[in-house]
Amino acid sequence: MGTPCHFALFDLQPGFRLDLDKLAVRYRELAREVHPDRFADTSEREQRIALENSAALNDAYQTLRSAPRRARYLLAISGHEVPQEVTVHDPDFLLQQMELREELEELADLDAVGVFKKRLKAAQDTLNDDFAACWNDPAQREQAERLMRRMQFLDKLAQEVRQLEERLDD
C-alpha cells in the first residue's frame, strides 16, 4: 500500500466536500481487506505490512472524516504545509471563542446544551462552506488557512460540548 494520497486510497477526488456515509462504507470494505487477522497464517513480514496498511488506512479515514483535519490535509497536499501550532491572529474570532467558552461553562441542563450545539453546528457549517469555496484558490490560501484554524477551534469546542453532555446525562 505504501502511503498513497488519502483520497486515492478511498477512490475519491481530492476535495473538501465528501459524502461521509460513503466514506464510512468504503472504509469498512477496505478495513476488512487489510485487517491483520486475515494475515495470521502468513510470514512475519506480511503480517507487519498488513499491520502498517491497516494503521495507514485508519489514519487516512480519521483525517478525511474530520472537517478540520481534512482541511489541513488538503492544504498540505496542495503544497501549503501548515504549522501544527494553532495560533489564531484574529481578535474578533478569539473574543467570540472566549464568549462561547464562558457560555458553555454556564450551561446547566441538556436542553440548553442542545440549543448551544445547534448554534455551534451552524457556525461549523458556515466555516466548512467558506473553506470549501476557497481552499483550492492559491490567491485565497491565507484565508483558507485562517478558516482551517477556526475549524480546529470549533471542533475542540464541540468535543467539550460532548463531554458536558455526558456529565449532565449521568
From TrEMBL:
Q: Name one GO biological process term.
A: protein folding
User: Pfam families, alphabetically?
Assistant: HSCB_C
Role description: Co-chaperone involved in the maturation of iron-sulfur cluster-containing proteins. Seems to help targeting proteins to be folded toward HscA.
Q: How does it assemble?
A: Interacts with HscA and stimulates its ATPase activity.
Recorded family membership: Belongs to the HscB family.
* UniProt xrefs under PANTHER family: IRON-SULFUR CLUSTER CO-CHAPERONE PROTEIN HSCB
Q: What is this protein called?
A: Co-chaperone protein HscB homolog
Organism of this sequence: Pseudomonas reidholzensis
